[in-house]
Design brief:
This protein has 337 residues and is α+β, with helices and mostly antiparallel strands. The protein is 56% helix and 15% strand.
Length: 337
């Protein structure tokens, strides 16, 4: 509708322009041949010739630019097609090389399925340390074990178990020192496989005896696999210290109530994840999960503080025989380098 109106208006203006132009020509032709009239005639003639020349040039340029534009588009399409063909050929060659490396057709099919479906395992290029002085590089398949996330129900269960086992919360520094002197709290078994964070005060480097046995077993297994020690970030705490901690750490558990921190009983410890490789974290999850399933410990993997919070129960004397041989999580942990 608007286009038709525009065309009508354009034709109307063109009509009046041509009518006025021809009226000027009629006046110039009929006027007596004076000097000014002759100049006007030459000016109008030059204008007419120039207008016809420009219109013909524009028409020629318009018709010649269409094939030129089509040629440019064709060339661009050809370049894109060529690049796509090269990429496709490269991918085909890479796939054929993988199939050749895989060996037989059945192995190649299994290799292709494992390559596409990386849901339960992740491939990483990691350094496999065969000895402390020798490092060998290569590709190692690292199984993914889901995080052992904590919950409100888990914290409630830890407090209920500690209360059922007769573990009281340590109120202040004096009670802490008395329990350490009486042997109810023992020092963390520091060794080449187990270290304590330097910022942890000496009077809080204590835990329950069964927690110490658990730490020794975990540290031995971890050191035998990775030749690296694990580090304890936190152990026993007092109620007064927990109240001060709440003022500066919003992630800390309360000091009283059913959701109080299990550190107040001395049975819980925090193992730092800082500096751990992905393979170590996966191994830790696989090693801890069957013991948690056996109801010997409760694990909360924290990400804001980057640690494994582990509450060890009195019933833990040692890991049940075969628990790390039969469970699927431990089999995954055993396959992690």
């Amino acid at each position: 509708m608007h286009f038709r109106y525009f065309r009508c208006a354009l034709n109307h203006n063109r009509y009046f322009f041509l009518r006025d132009f021809f009226d000027i020509l009629r006046v110039l032709v009929a006027a007596p041949p004076t000097l000014s009239i002759m100049r006007m005639r030459r000016f109008v003639l030059c204008g007419v010739v120039l207008s016809f020349a420009l219109s013909s040039m524009a028409a020629t340029g318009t018709h010649s630019s269409v094939p030129h534009r089509r040629t440019r588009l064709h060339r661009a399409h050809s370049r894109v097609t060529t690049a796509h063909e090269r990429t496709t050929e490269h991918l085909r060659a890479e796939r054929k090389a993988r199939l050749r490396r895989a060996g037989t057709e059945a192995d190649a099919r299994a290799h292709s399925v494992r390559y596409r479906r990386r849901v339960h395992s992740v491939r990483y290029a990691v350094r496999a340390a065969s000895s402390p002085g020798r490092v060998a590089t290569g590709f190692t398949r690292i199984h993914f074990v889901p995080p052992l996330r904590g919950s409100r129900a888990s914290l409630l269960r830890q407090n209920e178990r500690d209360t059922a086992e007769g573990l009281s919360r340590i109120e202040d520094q004096a009670e802490l020192l008395d329990m350490e002197a009486a042997g109810k709290l023992v020092p963390i078994p520091v060794s080449a496989a187990l270290q304590v964070d330097a910022s942890l005060p000496p009077d809080r480097r204590y835990c329950r005896p069964w927690t110490a046995r658990f730490l020794a077993a975990l540290a031995r297994s971890h050191y035998a696999r990775f030749h690296r020690p694990i580090e304890i970030d936190s152990a026993v705490r007092t109620v007064s210290f927990q109240r001060r901690l709440l003022r500066i750490n919003g992630n800390a558990a309360p000091a009283e109530g059913d959701l109080a921190s299990p550190h107040l009983s001395g049975a819980a410890i925090d193992i730092g994840k800082k500096g751990m490789r992905f393979s170590e974290i996966s191994w830790m999850r696989g090693w801890l999960l069957p013991i948690q399933t056996a109801d010997k410990i409760d694990v909360e993997e924290e990400f804001r503080q980057a640690c494994f919070h582990i509450d060890v129960y009195r019933g833990y004397v040692a890991a049940p025989a075969g628990i790390h041989r039969d469970s699927s999580a431990s089999l995954i942990a055993a396959d992690v380098n």
